């Protein structure tokens, strides 16, 4: 053993372990390998996708847990938790719009909506919250915030003046009409994404993520055209000369778009991974010579597009700490090697994700085996 201190900073292992349980399992693996001689610090993290709210609450336990009744992606009412203080409120989109919810998954992608997120924001504005924090990743929608737009009372019109209220005819939208009562959003809206992908193009919301959410090739073509039209209309509304949206606007199916269009001067779009590195203190705690353990459910090429594990790997390089990635499964080895990734180990050697019942033990044993040869 050549380390005096190990920092454990995983994301959730999607479908099996929360980040907190993953960190605990990794710690158990460290103790099995090296006993009590090494100092271990557990810092479970998130990246702006699923698990962000739970991780934030563990870091800020004084925040109050609240609930609201909102329509999910399929339009069915759902009780959703969020965190709040007197002036601020925090919302994880995946808790309402996740593809893991059976009702959301069963409905065709073109019929899913982000309206519930818009309704929550309106509720918080009515309560005069000054700062809204939105974690956007992990949704089942790809509507470019069309549901949010309609929830705020905006209208879309086609060339004949007919209302456009569905993704199926979104490519026909030519005019964006604000509600008569709309003035401006009086709160700061800080949005965090788990990827850096753009809205449009081969790595955008429709072409890259649409098929993962159930889009057919025809759906992808329609969505790409519709989101492109929506992007132009919001740029025109916000008096931008170009559709120059920040990196990451393709996250969550483009649900950041209406907020950027309605209140660009009060809205920011940032990396959720970097937010949690700062919030947890890892960015200030890590020292040269430390060993940092991180991991996630699946490490692949997508990890390189702003995921938590990638942010931890880059932080270790900057500081001069060693890093070991232990994930549920690992694929795209060539792309990870091209990115000069550190040693990356898969818990599952056959590509099958462990069940929740055995995931903790398997992750712990994988860490023990990895440290045996360090």
From TrEMBL:
The keyword Transferase applies. GO terms for molecular function: kinase activity. It holds the Pfam family Gly_kinase. InterPro entries: Glyc_kinase_flavodox-like_fold (IPR018193), Glycerate_kinase (IPR004381), Glycerate_kinase_RE-like (IPR018197), Glycerate_kinase_sf (IPR036129). This is Glycerate kinase. Belongs to the glycerate kinase type-1 family. Keywords: Kinase, Transferase.
């Amino acid at each position: 053993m050549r380390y005096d201190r190990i920092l454990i900073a995983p994301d959730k292992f999607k479908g099996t372990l929360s980040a907190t349980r993953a960190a605990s399992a990794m710690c158990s693996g460290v103790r099995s390998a090296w006993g009590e001689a090494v100092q271990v610090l557990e810092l479970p993290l998130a990246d702006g996708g699923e698990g962000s709210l739970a991780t934030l609450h563990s870091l800020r336990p004084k925040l109050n847990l609240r609930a609201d009744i909102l329509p999910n992606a399929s339009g069915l009412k759902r009780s959703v938790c969020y965190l709040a203080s007197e002036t601020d409120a925090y919302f994880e989109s995946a808790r309402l719009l996740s593809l893991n919810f059976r009702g959301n998954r069963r409905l065709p992608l073109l019929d899913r909506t982000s309206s519930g997120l818009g309704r929550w924001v309106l509720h918080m504005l009515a309560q005069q919250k000054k700062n809204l924090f939105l974690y956007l990743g992990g949704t089942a929608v790809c509507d470019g915030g069309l549901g949010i737009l309609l929830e705020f009372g905006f209208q879309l019109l086609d060339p004949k003046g007919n209302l456009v209220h569905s993704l199926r005819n979104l490519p026909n939208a030519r005019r964006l009409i604000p509600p008569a009562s709309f003035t401006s959003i009086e709160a700061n809206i800080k949005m965090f994404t788990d990827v850096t992908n753009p809205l449009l193009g081969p790595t955008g919301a429709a072409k890259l993520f649409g098929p993962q959410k159930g889009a057919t090739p025809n759906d992808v073509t329609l969505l790409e055209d519709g989101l492109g039209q929506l992007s132009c209309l919001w740029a025109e509304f916000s008096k931008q000369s170009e559709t120059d949206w920040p990196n990451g606007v393709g996250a969550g199916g483009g649900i950041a778009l209406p907020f950027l269009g309605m209140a660009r001067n009060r809205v920011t779009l940032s990396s959720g991974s970097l937010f949690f590195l700062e919030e947890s203190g890892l960015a200030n705690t890590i020292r040269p010579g430390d060993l940092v353990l991180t991991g996630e459910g699946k490490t692949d090429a997508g990890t390189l597009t702003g995921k938590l594990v990638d942010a931890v790997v880059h932080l270790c390089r900057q500081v001069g700490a060693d890093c070991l990635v232990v994930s549920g499964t690992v694929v795209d080895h060539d792309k990870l090697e091209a990115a000069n990734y550190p040693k990356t180990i898969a818990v599952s050697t056959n590509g099958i994700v462990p069940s929740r019942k055995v995931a903790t033990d398997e992750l712990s044993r994988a860490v023990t085996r990895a440290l045996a040869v360090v």
